[in-house]
Amino acid sequence: MRYTPLSSDLFKKNRDDFSKNLKTKSIAVFNSNDIYPISADSTLPFQQHRDIYYLSGIDQEESILLLFPEAREASDREILFVKRTDEHIAIWEGEKLTKEKASEFSGIDHIEWLEQFETVFFRLMKEAEIIYFNTNIHGRSTSEVQTREDRFIEWCKAKFPAHQVASSAPILHRLRAIKSQEEIDTIKKACDITEIGFREALKIIQPDIWEYEIEATFAYHFLKNKGDGFAYTPIIASGNNANVLHYIQNKKQCKAGEVILMDVASAYANYASDLTRVVPVSGVFSKRQKEVYNALLRVKNYATSILTPGLEWKAYNKEIGSFITKELLELNLLDKADIQNETKERPAYRNYFMHGTSHFLGLDTHDYGFQEDPMQANMVLTVEPGIYIPKEQMGFRLEDNVVIQKKGAPINLMESIPIEIEEIEMLMNK
What we know:
Blueprint: H1 8-19, E1 26-31, H2 50-56, E2 64-67, E3 78-82, H3 87-93, H4 99-106, E4 110-113, H5 117-125, E5 130-133, H6 148-159, E6 164-167, H7 169-177, H8 181-204, H9 211-224, E7 229-230, E8 235-238, E9 259-263, E10 266-268, E11 271-272, E12 276-280, H10 287-305, H11 313-330, H12 336-341, E13 380-383, E14 386-389, E15 394-397, E16 400-403, E17 411-412, H13 421-428
Parallel strand pairs: 1-5, 3-4, 5-6
Antiparallel strand pairs: 1-2, 2-3, 7-10, 8-9, 9-12, 10-11, 13-16, 14-15, 16-17
Helix pairs in contact: 1-2, 8-9, 10-11
């Protein structure tokens, strides 16, 4: 790992909070991700399953966490299984976790080699009545790949058909949505690395640069500063490409007079940041570009200002819809007839702003959390309104990461990243 390990106290608290929500006589099991194949002997870089990381701090493949708060033996209440390491593995694959290191990172005393899992699991299932599976209920999940977790669930149901089953996901969605101070500090570290990349990108942007050259600049500075790399697939979208919400090809040459929408951010210690900025290819915004940009900046600032505990997501989105409608009228993108003809299902502003204003941020870029629940203090959210104008060959989105406070305005973790037109133009024309 490139990052400095987080404290084992964080993961211990996460396990304690999770275990308090289990039904009596329950075992919960969490599996690491697979290393996914490409073809031949090629694989994708390993990415740890965020849930086992959240509960253990273990960032290694072929790991299993077992939690059984009511086990008869105290040593069986938390057990971590890791891949056995030896000199041969160290030569071919590099250093793996020893039992001592696994215990140090996780704060778990009982560490076993992975091959002991079935033996230990069968012994403990004699005491348990319920097994909690770590199913994925994220609203954006569309995976068709069978995961290591999926295979475990199939195996477990076949071996223990009489046990009751439950899902860990609802518990984790509520726990992970509220961040500890150490988590917030880690996200801030990711934001700081993102800022370095953004400032460096401003130095190289000029007419005829290619989108992928800008992407490469971010990648270099993210890795150079101990980031994990991109928190998500970067979007470097110049001209009309900015009107494709998930444009990731990054292959166009940037032309004078265009603006570039850059939705690109670093992760650190598996925690994501999520930044979007719009800058002029030529170093100076046109009058029309400034009008749209400043209108959107007002929307973003207003959206940030109303984020308080107790706010309902539906009310929040409705309020931002009303605010951006006024700005679109001022920009002559909407007129009174558009407002008169809009419907509840399809408000007029959706022609220019078709996505949500905010989402949860944390171990996942679109992190866990229920938008059916009111907002709470210590939630970390993005604020990212957009105005997309295909007929004018330009699209705008501005995005920061904020922490809701018990009282007062949210803390903007990206406050030091340039966003005002004057500062962006000044930096680009140094």
